[in-house]
Design goal:
Length: 383
């Protein structure tokens, strides 16, 4: 039986972990086609860049989380790391945010002091096929996640009157940002709304420019306490809050509720971070397909349900707009690093590292991932 005499927590009490955990270093590898290496080699390249970024050595790392790298044992051996905390997380992109939360919890609990999180993927050189065969979508005749998202956008168009043309404003905004990012795969390759409309169909109504870019590459973050991060090489970026909501009643098919309940539940991130939506200057949205961006905006309340087409048409996602989004180019035009690169870009923005694509006077960034493990997190510039 529950203890009815237990005191309830204060309604407005600050979240226990608010601003206690920080990003101390980030690093990325090259993005492209590199058959001469593998996810281990790419991960080492990214982690060495992250170590250099914050001025640490491999021996300073006592926690290790790897994703899409087959084993932490071999990776730790290659890097010369002997952690007291290690973990291999699952491959889907939603586990970028899950991995971040696990690292924050490990640091806050004292299980580790300094955690390296490393994502490595050689999907392009291995000709990785997302979908097809005996996949989770097979029971419903779906062959890929793209087909699932296409069906969800068909529902949105039927229910709200949105169109495929609305997605063009997402794809073009992110390509414009990539053209300002010298490291983006699509740097120097601008597109027009007409290009988006006339692109090769993939899965009706989605076309080529609605799909993410599969590449080889790696991303690494180094996280520690905010107090330790103050003494490191680069300014710390604080984890102010995160929230997550899981739902698996549609785990093997399209979400007929368009993930709205999941996403709406993650609005608790604002209470945890102690700031509101209007205090956010920029967004990082998981854009495996362009409709996911519009569903995310609606689910987190940046615009009413069904109104995201009008919302993005006015330039809200572009640099200079109200909420510049995926300023690196995102998955659609930088590279599909399954959320890891988007979170790294949020950190870069808060350290004023983005050059021509820098958001002016940015103080807080929000990351949103719309899946059946929906997540949102808020990062803030350190003092």
């Amino acid at each position: 039986m529950p203890d009815t005499n237990m005191a309830s927590p204060a309604i407005n009490a600050p979240w226990e972990m608010r601003d206690k955990i920080a990003f101390a270093g980030i690093g990325t590898s090259r993005f492209g086609n590199f058959p001469e290496t593998d996810s281990y080699g790419l991960g080492c390249e990214a982690l060495n860049a992250a170590l250099d970024d914050c001025g640490l050595k491999p021996s300073d790392i006592d926690g290790l989380i790897v994703n899409r790298i087959p084993t932490y044992e071999r990776f730790a051996e290659m890097m010369g790391i002997n952690p007291q905390y290690c973990l291999l997380t699952e491959a889907p992109g939603r586990f970028s945010g899950v991995s971040l939360a696990l690292a924050a919890q490990a640091i806050h609990s004292g299980a580790a002091k300094c955690v390296a999180l490393v994502y490595g993927n050689n999907g392009r050189s291995n000709r990785m096929m997302y979908g097809g065969g005996d996949s989770q979508w097979s029971p419903w005749g779906m062959t890929s996640p793209g087909a699932t998202h296409a069906m969800m956008w068909q529902r949105h168009m039927h229910q709200f009157g949105t169109t495929h043309a609305d997605l063009g404003h997402v794809s073009k905004a992110f390509r414009d940002h990539a053209c300002l990012n010298p490291d983006a795969v699509m740097h120097g390759r601008p597109i027009t709304l007409e290009d988006h409309a006339k692109a090769r169909p993939i899965c009706e109504p989605l076309k080529l420019l609605d799909y993410c870019l599969i590449n080889d590459g790696a991303v690494a973050w180094i996280m520690t306490t905010a107090e330790r991060a103050k003494d490191m090489k680069r300014p710390p970026v604080l984890l102010s809050g995160y929230a997550r909501q899981d739902a698996f009643h549609y785990g093997s098919g399209p979400a007929d509720d368009l993930w709205y309940p999941n996403l709406s539940a993650t609005r608790s991130v604002y209470d945890r971070a102690g700031i509101g939506r209007e205090d956010i200057q920029g967004l990082g949205i998981y854009d495996n397909f362009s409709p996911t961006v519009l569903l995310s905006l609606e689910g987190l309340g940046f615009c009413p349900q069904g109104e995201s087409g009008n919302f993005v048409r006015d330039g809200a996602l572009r640099l200079g707009g109200r909420w510049p989004t995926n300023t690196s180019g995102g998955h659609l035009s930088d590279s599909y690093m399954q959320g890891w690169g988007i979170i790294a870009e949020c950190v870069r923005q808060l350290r004023d590292d983005c050059g021509a694509r820098q958001i002016k006077d940015v103080q807080a960034m929000q990351y949103i991932c719309a899946t059946n493990i929906a997540q949102s997190l808020i990062l803030r510039r350190g003092a």
